[in-house]
Amino acid sequence: MATVSPAAERPEPGALPRAALLVGAAILVLAVASFVGARYGLLLAIGLGFGIVLEGFRFGFAGPWRRLIRERDPAATVAQLVSIGLVALAAFPLLATHGQELIGAHAPVGFAMIGGAFVFGACMQIVMGCGSGTLVNAGSGNAVSLLALPFFAIGSFFGADHLLWWTSLGTAPTVALSGTTGLIVTLAGLAAVSAFLWWRAAPEQRVIPRRLWLAAICLAALAIANLVVAGQPWGVVYGLGLWAAKGATALGADLSASSFWGTEANMERVGASLLTDVTSLTNLGIVAGAALVAAWRAGLGAGIPQLPARAWVATVIAGFLLGYSSRLAFGCNVGAFFSGISTGSLHGWVWFAAAFGGAFYGIKLRPILGLEPRT
Amino acid sequence: MKTRLIVVSIALVGLATMTLADLAASGAPDIYGQPPIIALGSGQASGGAHCAALPQ
Question: Is residue A212 part of a domain?
Fold first, then answer.
């Protein structure tokens, strides 16, 4: 059974410590912009924004799905769909008019993709953290997420390494909606799912708090900025796998024979600074942004949960599976669900359905694995 | 008492160490050889380092 030590009583930081936090973040961004490149500084700032929005508004993916399933509370899940719709409103015309400079999160549907999304959905409920959530939680002091994070990266590395074998089991051609018709179909799909969730909701839960509206709008603005600046949609797991690939290389591994890491483009990225990799920068920014908010709130005095050994073992395994499965699924809740749907990829919709199915089992497994009390 | 401050400190120090070690191994990026600040309107193709992309 999980027990949490009582939170230490701490006063909120004064104006000076808070100003120091902002100055520190600005110095980081300026340093990267000055010594690496202006685009990379801007991407780090966007990543900081993601972290600040997700932690500041307490907006996520795993928690809202859990509340939807257990309490028939659709508010935060509908807010996710609203945010995706807002991004689609900008992304579809941008991709249609600037297809040479911008790419969508387009990937094929296949057996491994569906299975990967299902496993990811289960594991993100076990550790209560998805792709972005694990980064945010690690940055705000969650010990379970901090432990899961390196294994997430290692899993992502191996999942990418084995990706072509898995896709060879059966993969359909990539289907991506585009243009005005594609946008209308996407918005209609999001509206239909939202209406269904609203209809199935408990009557007292049929309200979306202002906090979630603001979070949805801010997240959409940052995701659009990510697309415009980086030329590609918001993603998480490529960067994590790259970190592990760099670690493997540093330990003497030769990745040239890998069907994924051995390609020219990936070998080049493994050899280049991670400060020039889009998803690495936004991932680092998410952790730092979440830490900034946690320090701003003086929310770091709470105790670390006392969990049984099997819970920590489960965290390691689930962390690895989060990384591995998200590569087979062509993304996590961010790269596949959020960015896939908002840029027209069919695999984003299939990911949503499969991961949501997996979430049911993940919720059932959490108490069995000692990550929450049995009821 | 062990608090969340310890967890955050480990996360930030760990990531900073990884970044600096990587920077030392890969060498300083060529600041003058970097892409334009914004991809939109740059005329350059995206790098494609995204989790939805198949290896090319």
Answer: yes
Question: Would you call A301 and B4 a contact, using CB atoms and an 8 Å cutoff?
Answer: yes
Q: How many domains does chain A have?
A: 1
Question: Is the predicted pLDDT of residue A11 greater than 80, yes or no?
Answer: no
Nearby residues of A97 by Cβ (< 8 Å), 6 or more positions away: none
Q: What are the residues whose beta carbons fall under 8 Å from the beta carbon of A322, sequence distance 6 or more?
A: A120, A123, A124, A127, A130, A131, A134, A148, A151, A152, A155, A332
Helices (H), A72-208: 75-97, 111-126, 131-139, 143-161, 163-167, 179-200
Tens of pLDDT, residues A147-201: 999 999 999 999 999 999 999 999 999 999 999 999 999 999 999 999 999 999 9
Chain centre distance of CA B46: 16
Identify any residues that bridge with A306 across adjacent strands, giving them in sequence order.
A3
Give CA–CA dist A268/A39, Å, rounded: 19
Kindly report the average pLDDT of chain B as a whole number. Answer: 91
- A135 occurs within a structural domain: yes
Closest Cα partner for A185 from A12, A326, A366, A346?
A: A346
Question: How many other β-carbons are positioned within 10 Å of the β-carbon of residue A250?
Answer: 12
How far is A196 from chain B, CA to nearest CA, in Å?
Answer: 28
Interface probe for B, chosen from A32, A34, A39 (most Cβ of B below 10 Å), is: A39
Instruction: Read off the DSSP letter of residue A333.
Output: I
The residue range of the domain holding A74 is 13-368
Q: Model confidence at A2, in pLDDT bands (50, 70, 90)?
A: very low
Contacts of A331 in chain B (CB under 8 A): 50-52
Residues 17-56 of chain B with CB under 8 A from chain A are: 18-19, 21-23, 25-29, 31, 34-56
pLDDT given at position B1: 61
Do residue B7 and residue A326 have CB atoms under 8 angstroms apart? no
Query: pLDDT above 90 covers what percent of chain A?
Result: 93
3-state secondary structure of A110: strand
